[in-house]
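#struct-help
A.M.: can someone run this one for me? Single chain, 373 residues.
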Amino acid sequence: MIVTTEILPIGLLTPIAADFRVSEGTAGLMMTIPGLIAAAAAPLVTVSTGRFDRRTMLYLLLALLAVADFLAVVAPSYWIILASRALVGLTIGGFWSIGAGLAARLVAARHVATATAVIFSSVPLGSVLGVPLGTYLGQLAGWRTSFLVMGLLTAVVAAALAVLLPALPALRVTRPALLLGLLRHSGARLGLVLTFLVVLAHFATYTYVTPFLEQVTRLSPGTISAFLLVYGAAGMAGNFLAGWGIARSLPRTFLTCGSLLALVLVLLPILGASNGPALGLLVVWGLAYGAVPVCSQSWFVASAPDTPEAATVLFTSSFQLTICVGALVGGLIVDAASTSAVMGIGAAPAIVMVVVLWLMRRADRIGEPVRAS
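D.P.: on it. Structure tokens below:
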């Protein structure tokens, strides 16, 4: 529910922009606002509610997400839409910081790695089910209907969390000093740099993939939904392939993701006018980015194995702040140039990420906790 609601505007960007008579770049603020709020909410919510039962926090945050969806349904102006997206950001920051690291408390130790992969499969699953189905529903019944359905489903999930999760009392309270101490760790700092670069490349471009497929590949709305569905399925595969790759080498797996993403973004403006190459590149894109959240989260946790919630806060905050920056930068490029330009320019941070990680590996400056993961 959270991931789908976060990225749903990607598939509905054009009709929402047309409805409120704003440019597609301005409509991209629907991705920028949640990322900005989530980046701040991750540490603030986690620290301020450190003594609360985690189950209570999870279902209250899901209830807030349902409110945000319903607010979008009745929004009379674009600014109300942005207010609803701010509530989405509050949910994202709080929920991921608390929930992403709970696998160890919900399953036996031997199943923790698998449970973590299942939790993070929600990221590509949101692409597989959320964006294509939400886009298709929006085409059939209007974009407000998509948010209405999401709100109803989210309310059901919030109730399920309240009923089905066991009590999860706070263990080690995450304090500001703990987060600042984590930032002094060289592995965590490198993880911040790598995550910023690769997520910047992705969201500066993927936020505007629907206009690209409309304007450059010249696909019909129904075909765009099908292409996004294939992308999401590839993301699911990439998520679980990442678990297999990380068990062998986290740096090499992360390097592969960045390299494939950079290659796709370089080739898309060149080959993306044809259906076949565009679809093939979307598959590779899905495989590459589907592995990124697992790689990034694993990097932070490996850098701070004794403070998993603090590591998850750092992961969530950096990830969401970069989504905000990426969507904003991409929107500026789209409004100033074109959707083809944003794809080509978006390859640059992915290339820098690859170069940084490759140089660090070659110089053997990647810390042992990361290699051990």
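A.M.: thanks! The CA atoms of residues 66 and 151 lie 4 Å apart.
D.P.: also worth noting: The chain is about 85% helix and 0% strand.
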